[in-house]
Design a protein that fits this description.
By secondary structure, this protein is of the alpha/beta class. It has a domain at 3-174: Carbamate kinase. It has helices at 16-31, 46-57, 63-87, 119-126, 153-163, 197-205, 213-222, 275-285, 314-323, 325-328, 355-365, 389-399; strands at 3-8, 35-40, 92-95, 102-104, 113-116, 130-134, 137-139, 145-147, 168-173, 194-196, 226-230, 238-241, 254-270, 293-296, 302-310, 332-345, 372-376, 379-385. A hairpin with a 7-residue loop joins β11 (226-230) and β12. The structure holds adenosine-5'-diphosphate, aspartic acid and magnesium ion (MG). Residues 9-12, 41, 151, 173-175, 178-179, 181-184, 208-210, 254 line the site of adenosine-5'-diphosphate (ADP).
């Protein structure tokens, strides 16, 4: 008998009928002779609606209370699913994050899982029970309830699969797998049969919302085999594991993109050896996440530094820079909003020079100006105008032959 962790996202548990459908998928797995742990998200758009309500009451609601609020969403789903499972004649029990033994660091809104004590769940499994766990939540050593960041139920599922040494973790969602790019934006996107951990980690970090980046990190570190598949269709999904052969010898596996990016430029910075650490330490101390960094004018006594951030961090970034103007010793700050990041990802790049060059040529031919670039062994990211984002993705999708990946059912 094996052990399977199944995770069902918000759309898959969007109403009572869908919860019944999920109960059916769980029952099938149980009938196959497997032990089953199920992780669920809040129903439909519940989390968004809760966030909206809090924002109506305050422009900066307490992070502790936000966690208190948002964790209620998942608590509704676990109880309803356990009720539906019992109705099907299965023995089932639902647990919140803390009941399931999920300990996190003391950070509200984006906590990391530090430890899982799986004893309670193991006892239930030994007794033949299906265990239903609330995704996206945990508890600190002080008994404070935390959340794992938006989309974090994936991470709960993979972390539980690692702690329980499960044979597999299935992520059930509203698409049939991981596609060459987001199928909601690009009609020609193709389902992939496999993606390696490293590629998936890049895709997830670069904006492919289909998996929470930390879930992929856990899967890689603990060797958990993941499959992303549909909660409605019975077709096979996309397997994520260590080594995956490239389909049709392609160089690029997928394209990720993210809108609402802003470029900030600090002009006339004193070109001393301490300028760079001072700026980025100041930003880091204020929890501002900086992405691509470009420094220019290094041969002179004044340098310029540009970096990209999420547009939602712009106000705070400008405030921090203004507050520390004297220490940082710069002349002025400029910013450009309305940008997007478009990235190509693929393990095939390691052994193929000229991939970045080809990407720039394709974008230039489409009239898409590249404003910033960053590369790693298996990705090239460009910052472009937000208005041209989808056009850029479509052109790259065709030029790197992703539209030729065979259609899989
Ligand atoms: P869930 O609520 O099940 O966690 P999400 O909305 O978080 O579902 O993730 C599924 C969505 O991810 C899809 O509807 C799709 O629009 C989006 N997505 C982005 N990039 C990709 C990709 N490369 N492949 C598949 N889906 C993607
Ligand atoms: N309900 C949470 C969210 O909407 C967590 C999740 O669905 O993964 O972000
Ligand atoms: Mg998700």
């Amino acid at each position: 008998m094996g052990l399977i962790v199944q995770k069902f996202g918000g759309t898959s548990v969007g109403d009572v009928e869908k919860i019944q459908n999920v109960a059916g998928r769980v029952a099938e797995e149980k009938q196959n002779g497997n032990g089953v742990v199920v992780v669920v998200s809040a129903m439909g758009k519940t989390t968004d609606k809760l966030v909206e309500m809090a924002n109506e009451l305050s422009s900066s609601p307490s992070k502790r209370e936000m966690d208190m609020l948002l964790t209620t969403g998942e608590q509704v789903t676990i109880s309803l699913l356990a009720i539906a499972l019992k109705e099907k004649g299965l023995d089932a029990v639902s647990y919140t994050g803390w009941q399931a033994g999920i300990s996190t660091e003391s950070v509200h809104g984006n906590a990391r899982i530090l430890n899982i004590n799986p004893n309670k769940i193991k006892n239930d499994l030994a007794a033949g029970r299906v265990v239903v766990v609330a995704g996206f939540q945990g508890v600190t050593d002080n008994g404070e309830i935390t959340t794992l960041g938006r989309g974090g139920s994936d991470t709960t599922a993979v972390a539980l699969a690692a702690a329980l040494n499960a044979d597999k973790c299935d992520i059930y969602t509203d698409v049939t797998g991981v596609y060459t790019t987001d199928p909601r934006y690009v009609k020609g996107a193709r389902k992939l049969l496999g993606v390696s951990y490293d590629e998936m980690l890049e895709l997830a970090n670069l904006g492919a919302g289909v998996l929470h980046p930390r879930a992929v990190e856990f899967a890689k570190n603990f060797g958990v085999t993941l499959e992303v598949r549909s909660s409605m269709e019975k077709e096979r999904g996309t397997v994520i594991e260590e080594e995956i052969a490239m389909e049709q010898n392609l160089i690029v596996r997928g394209i990720a993109f993210e809108d609402q990016i802003t470029r900030v430029s600090i002009i006339g910075l004193d070109n001393s050896i301490t300028s760079l650490p001072t700026i980025f330490t100041t930003l880091a101390n204020n929890h501002i996440n900086v992405d691509i960094i470009i420094q220019s004018g290094t041969g002179t006594d004044k340098a310029n530094i540009s970096f990209s951030i999420k547009s939602s961090d712009l106000k705070e970034t400008l405030e921090v820079l203004e507050k520390n103007k004297e220490t940082l010793n710069y002349e002025s700050v400029e910013s450009e909003t309305g940008l997007a990041k478009v990235s190509i990802v693929g393990a095939g790049m390691i052994s193929n020079p000229g991939v970045a060059a080809k990407m720039f040529e394709v974008l230039a031919a489409e009239g898409v100006q590249v404003k910033m670039v960053s590369t790693s062994e298996i990705k090239v990211s460009t910052v472009v105008s937000e208005q041209l984002m989808v056009k850029a993705v479509e052109a790259l999708h065709d030029s790197f032959e992703l539209s030729n990946v065979p259609v899989q059912a």
